[in-house]
Design a protein that fits this description.
Largest sheet: 4 strands, antiparallel
Distance between the termini: 97 Å
Strand order of the largest sheet: 3-6-1-7
Helix content: 10-25%
Oligomer: single chain
Order of helices and strands: HEEHEEEEHEEE
Length: 208
């Protein structure tokens, strides 16, 4: 009734696919698997590639977490308005820091933020409707006072640290400030300085 080549092609079309995704049955189609390159700043895996735009985090409760140094001796933090920083901008700043500190053996660069928010864009002059735009790049939201980069690992001179972090600031889209271990935490645009007891003279220096 059927020729042999036609019967084989019909059998192959009716046979169910044996390919399965390691991420689960929800991503069992090869076109839905998201893969990143080894050089990219991106999450390893995401459940949904599209997300709401969201708003910048505002510490209304008075939290100062993430506004002081935790790993290094020098760093930069956001002094201007909060901003959405892309993975490409963070990668450029990180490369500028590592290039400047290449001659110092043991120097480390700590990135305190990570781009894990997918940004979707629709083309210009597109009619309304027909769903959300396609995925474009990864980004992260930073609030005023958030530490972005830190330098440490080995003792680094302040002049060299300032120059390296200045090159990194040129790659970022907002105003930054240079800080050290003695810098007080920041709440928005306000510095939180510790209150001294009433019987302590502010002009007097206290030695440890």
């Amino acid at each position: 009734m059927f020729s042999l080549p036609f019967a084989r092609s019909l059998l192959a079309a009716c046979r169910p696919s044996t390919w399965s995704s390691p991420l689960g049955p929800a991503l069992s189609s090869p076109s839905l698997v998201f893969a990143r390159g080894r050089h990219q700043l991106a999450p390893r895996s995401v459940k949904f590639i599209k997300r709401h735009k969201g708003v910048l985090p505002v510490p209304t409760g008075g939290s100062t977490k993430g506004t002081t140094l935790a790993f290094g001796d020098w760093g930069i933090r956001v002094k201007g308005n909060g901003m959405r920083i892309t993975a490409k901008q963070l990668k450029s700043a990180d490369e500028a820091l590592k290039r400047k500190l290449k001659s110092i053996k043991g120097a480390k660069v700590y990135m305190r933020v990570f781009p894990d928010i997918p940004v979707c864009i629709k083309g210009n002059e597109t009619r309304m409707g027909k769903g959300k735009g396609s995925f474009e790049y990864w980004a992260t939201r930073v609030a005023p006072g958030r530490v972005i980069f830190e330098l440490g690992g080995v003792p680094i001179r302040e002049e060299l640290a300032r120059e390296a972090l200045r090159l990194a600031c040129d790659k970022l889209p907002t105003i930054m400030e240079f800080i050290d271990r003695k810098a007080p935490p920041r709440l928005g645009n306000m510095l939180i300085t510790p209150e001294l007891p009433a019987d302590v003279n502010p002009q007097q220096t206290i030695s440890p």
